[in-house]
Amino acid sequence: MHRLVCALTVMTVLAPLASAQAPVTWTSSAKVINGNCSEGAIAEIVETPGKMSVRTSFNGKLLTSFEVVLKPDGSGRADTKGENGRMIFEIPPGTGKRGMKNSQVDGTCQWQWIPK
Fold first, then answer.
1. How many domains does the chain have?
2. Are the CB atoms for 80 and 64 separated by under 8 Å?
3. Is the pLDDT reported for residue 43 higher than 50?
4. Strand pairing partners for 1?
5. Is residue 9 part of a domain?
6. Residues 89/87/49/45 CA torsion (nearest 10 deg)
7. Which domain holds residue 35?
Protein backbone atom coordinates (compact mmCIF):
# COMPACT_ATOMS: atom_id res chain seq x y z
CA MET A 1 0.00 0.00 0.00
CA HIS A 2 2.83 2.42 0.84
CA ARG A 3 4.39 1.95 -2.62
CA LEU A 4 1.09 2.66 -4.35
CA VAL A 5 0.62 5.94 -2.45
CA CYS A 6 4.17 7.03 -3.33
CA ALA A 7 3.65 6.20 -7.01
CA LEU A 8 0.40 8.18 -7.12
CA THR A 9 2.04 11.12 -5.40
CA VAL A 10 4.92 11.15 -7.90
CA MET A 11 2.52 10.86 -10.86
CA THR A 12 0.36 13.71 -9.50
CA VAL A 13 3.39 15.99 -9.07
CA LEU A 14 4.95 15.16 -12.45
CA ALA A 15 1.76 15.35 -14.55
CA PRO A 16 1.52 19.20 -14.48
CA LEU A 17 5.23 19.47 -15.31
CA ALA A 18 4.83 17.25 -18.37
CA SER A 19 1.90 19.29 -19.69
CA ALA A 20 3.80 22.56 -19.12
CA GLN A 21 6.62 21.26 -21.34
CA ALA A 22 4.37 20.35 -24.27
CA PRO A 23 5.30 22.22 -27.47
CA VAL A 24 2.90 24.83 -28.83
CA THR A 25 2.59 24.87 -32.63
CA TRP A 26 0.93 27.29 -35.02
CA THR A 27 1.26 28.85 -38.45
CA SER A 28 1.49 32.52 -39.42
CA SER A 29 1.19 34.30 -42.74
CA ALA A 30 3.35 37.22 -43.87
CA LYS A 31 1.89 40.62 -44.66
CA VAL A 32 4.11 43.36 -46.14
CA ILE A 33 4.37 46.46 -43.95
CA ASN A 34 7.16 48.18 -45.92
CA GLY A 35 8.64 47.84 -49.41
CA ASN A 36 7.49 46.43 -52.72
CA CYS A 37 7.78 42.78 -51.73
CA SER A 38 5.86 39.52 -51.94
CA GLU A 39 3.49 38.56 -49.18
CA GLY A 40 1.74 35.35 -48.30
CA ALA A 41 4.71 33.35 -47.08
CA ILE A 42 3.82 30.84 -44.36
CA ALA A 43 5.73 30.25 -41.13
CA GLU A 44 5.43 26.98 -39.23
CA ILE A 45 6.30 27.67 -35.60
CA VAL A 46 7.02 25.32 -32.70
CA GLU A 47 7.58 26.87 -29.29
CA THR A 48 8.97 25.02 -26.31
CA PRO A 49 10.09 26.62 -23.04
CA GLY A 50 13.01 28.91 -23.88
CA LYS A 51 13.11 28.14 -27.61
CA MET A 52 11.18 28.78 -30.82
CA SER A 53 11.74 26.89 -34.08
CA VAL A 54 10.60 28.63 -37.27
CA ARG A 55 10.38 27.37 -40.87
CA THR A 56 9.19 29.81 -43.53
CA SER A 57 8.09 28.86 -47.02
CA PHE A 58 6.48 30.45 -50.07
CA ASN A 59 4.47 28.40 -52.58
CA GLY A 60 5.88 25.22 -51.03
CA LYS A 61 9.54 26.33 -51.31
CA LEU A 62 11.54 26.58 -48.09
CA LEU A 63 12.81 30.14 -47.52
CA THR A 64 14.57 29.72 -44.18
CA SER A 65 14.64 27.54 -41.08
CA PHE A 66 16.06 28.65 -37.73
CA GLU A 67 15.79 28.47 -33.94
CA VAL A 68 15.56 31.38 -31.53
CA VAL A 69 16.60 31.25 -27.89
CA LEU A 70 13.87 33.09 -26.01
CA LYS A 71 14.46 35.42 -23.07
CA PRO A 72 12.57 34.76 -19.82
CA ASP A 73 9.78 37.11 -21.02
CA GLY A 74 9.38 35.04 -24.22
CA SER A 75 10.94 37.61 -26.56
CA GLY A 76 13.78 36.89 -28.94
CA ARG A 77 15.67 37.96 -32.02
CA ALA A 78 17.19 35.91 -34.82
CA ASP A 79 19.60 36.88 -37.57
CA THR A 80 19.24 34.32 -40.36
CA LYS A 81 20.00 33.93 -44.03
CA GLY A 82 17.63 32.39 -46.53
CA GLU A 83 16.28 32.67 -50.06
CA ASN A 84 15.64 36.41 -49.64
CA GLY A 85 19.07 37.22 -48.19
CA ARG A 86 19.90 38.07 -44.61
CA MET A 87 16.89 38.67 -42.35
CA ILE A 88 16.22 39.79 -38.80
CA PHE A 89 13.23 38.21 -37.03
CA GLU A 90 11.86 39.83 -33.88
CA ILE A 91 9.63 37.87 -31.50
CA PRO A 92 7.67 39.91 -28.94
CA PRO A 93 7.30 38.90 -25.28
CA GLY A 94 4.74 36.26 -24.41
CA THR A 95 4.06 32.59 -24.95
CA GLY A 96 2.03 30.71 -27.52
CA LYS A 97 0.50 32.20 -30.64
CA ARG A 98 1.75 35.71 -31.27
CA GLY A 99 2.78 37.84 -34.18
CA MET A 100 6.37 38.54 -35.12
CA LYS A 101 8.13 40.91 -37.47
CA ASN A 102 11.02 40.48 -39.83
CA SER A 103 13.01 42.69 -42.16
CA GLN A 104 15.71 42.40 -44.79
CA VAL A 105 19.14 43.51 -43.60
CA ASP A 106 20.22 44.64 -47.09
CA GLY A 107 16.82 45.77 -48.40
CA THR A 108 13.65 47.69 -47.61
CA CYS A 109 11.19 44.83 -47.15
CA GLN A 110 9.51 44.37 -43.78
CA TRP A 111 6.79 41.89 -42.86
CA GLN A 112 4.33 41.37 -40.03
CA TRP A 113 3.51 37.70 -39.35
CA ILE A 114 -0.14 37.14 -38.47
CA PRO A 115 -0.92 33.95 -36.49
CA LYS A 116 -3.66 31.74 -37.92
1. 1
2. yes
3. yes
4. none
5. no
6. 90
7. 23-115
Whether 10 is covered by a domain: the verdict is: no
> Residue 78 in contact with residue 51, Cβ under 8 Å?
no
Report how far residue 31's alpha carbon sits from residue 110's, in angstroms, rounded to the nearest whole number. Answer: 9
> Does the pTM exceed 0.90?
no
Task: Give the Cα separation of 105 and 44 in Å (integer).
Answer: 22
Q: What is the pLDDT of residues 74-112, one digit of tens each?
A: 999 999 998 888 999 999 999 999 999 999 999 999 999
Compute the mean pLDDT over every residue in the chain, rounded to the nearest whole number.
Answer: 87
Q: Is 11 a member of any domain?
A: no
- Residue 5 CA, distance from chain mean position: 40
Query: Is residue 69 domain-resident?
Result: yes
CA-based nearest residue to 74, from 24, 10, 3: 24
**What's the pLDDT band for 9 if we cut at 50, 70, 90?**
very low
Cα distances (Å, whole numbers) of residue 110 to 27, 35, 94, 105: 18, 7, 22, 10
Angstrom distance (rounded) from CA 93 to CA 68: 13
